[in-house]
Specification:
The chain starts with a helix and ends with a helix. It has 2 domains: 175 residues; 26 residues. The protein is an all-alpha fold. Helix 1 packs antiparallel against helix 2. It is rod-shaped. Pfam families: Rab11-FIP3. This is Rab11 family-interacting protein 4A. It comes from Sipha flava.
Length: 243
């Protein structure tokens, strides 16, 4: 009986411990269930926020993709426009280069022609200068002869004046002119005649120089017909004055 009593007491103690453990386990289970419910609520909130955030990210991504596509298309359109403009400018430059090349070839041919023409004109100008030098030398000779004759005429005029004064002084004694005075008068008339001849030759030579100068000028100024027409309209005195 004592043994059974002890066993009953032990069983009672075990039952009491079991009840306490059951109560604690039940309380812990209730706490765990409450925590599970709380975690489930947090999980649902987290899932909801994640879904909202995911939707927002997807929406932002779609907007970003749309904007990138739009910018890419705009960039492509701008590049196409620039490419078309560059191709058009390149074509214009190519045509302009061809025109410049053609103009350059034309200018080269014109340069060669002008150089040949300048050489011909230089030859003609040199020939004209040689003729002018010869005519100038002849003209200087005529001028010197005219100057010498003028000096002789002046000397004879002075001698004639002296003779005239002597003649007037001796007019009462002499009724006929002195042979010396007559000779001086004849020489004076001869020199005057020679001087007139030289002056005519000088005028003819000067006119010849002017005519040759005009002719050479017309040959050298074929590029300026207006100047040739102006020379044609000048008189001899005008041409002499211009020369």
């Amino acid at each position: 009986v004592q043994v059974l009593q002890k066993q009953m007491n032990a069983l009672a103690d075990n039952q009491h411990l079991t009840d306490e453990r059951y109560a604690r386990t039940k309380e812990e289970n209730a706490a765990l269930q409450a925590r599970v419910h709380m975690l489930e609520e947090q999980l649902r909130d987290t899932e909801l926020r994640c879904e909202e955030r995911l939707a927002s990210e997807e929406r932002r991504h779609r907007e970003l993709v749309t904007r990138v596509d739009r910018e890419k298309q705009l960039h492509i359109d701008n590049c196409a426009i620039r490419l078309q403009s560059i191709e058009s400018a390149n074509e214009s430059l190519r045509l302009e280069a061809e025109k410049c090349k053609s103009a350059l070839d034309t200018m080269r041919h014109e340069k060669i022609s002008l150089e040949q023409r300048v050489n011909d004109l230089n030859v003609g100008a040199q020939s004209f200068k040689d003729e002018i030098r010869l005519l100038d030398a002849e003209l200087r000779t005529l001028k010197q002869r005219e100057k010498d004759n003028e000096e002789i005429i002046k000397g004879l005029t002075r001698e004639l004046e002296v003779s005239r004064l002597e003649k007037e002084a001796m007019v009462t004694e002499l009724h006929s002119p002195s042979p010396y005075v007559t000779e001086l008068t004849a020489q004076l008339e001869s020199l005057k005649h020679q001087n007139r001849s030289l002056k005519d030759s000088y005028d003819e030579l000067q006119a010849s120089i002017i005519a040759k100068g005009i002719e050479k000028g017309r040959m050298l100024l074929t590029e300026s017909p207006s100047l040739a027409s102006e020379l044609d309209g000048l008189t001899h005195d005008d041409v002499s004055e211009q020369c």
